[in-house]
Design a protein that fits this description.
The protein has no helices and eleven strands. It has strands spanning about 1-5, 10, 15-25, 35-40, 45-50, 55-60, 65-70, 75-80, 90-100, 100-105, 110-115. Strands 2, 4, 5, 6, 9, 10 and 11 form a seven-stranded mixed beta sheet that branches. A four-stranded antiparallel beta sheet has the order 1-3-8-7, with no helix packed on it. The radius of gyration is 13 Å and the shape is globular. The termini are far apart.
């Protein structure tokens, strides 16, 4: 299993970014996918989850209405569209999949929101 995130960077408050996570090594269309984030000195936080068919999504209260998770099963990729970014969104964003009893993580992509 391999998860490779991309799309992070430095953005001003109020700006937008789209993160991507390209998956390989498993049947992507069969599993729910999640985005987490971890800020320095803080615990890892679940940001958003999407079911295998993309029909149901869930979000942390802190990002509801600003972030959108989506997936393209033909491209084995899950996305996180982030808008109205705030300094408190600054973190490493990680892609996650649970396959039976195993949990897999990507290496993460840094998002920094600062003026």
């Amino acid at each position: 299993v391999q998860l490779v995130e991309s799309g992070g960077g430095l953005v001003q408050p109020g700006g937008s970014l789209r993160l991507s996570c390209e998956a390989s090594g498993f049947t992507f269309r069969s599993y729910a996918m999640s985005w987490y984030r971890q800020a320095p000195g803080k615990e890892r936080e679940l940001v958003a989850t999407i079911t295998s068919d993309g029909g149901t999504t869930n979000y942390a209260d802190s990002v509801k209405g600003r972030f959108t998770i989506s997936r393209d099963n033909a491209k084995n990729t899950v996305y996180l569209q982030m808008k109205s970014l705030k300094p408190e969104d600054t973190a490493v964003y990680l892609c996650n999949v649970r396959i039976w009893f195993d949990v897999y993580w990507g290496q993460g992509t840094q998002v920094t929101v600062s003026s």
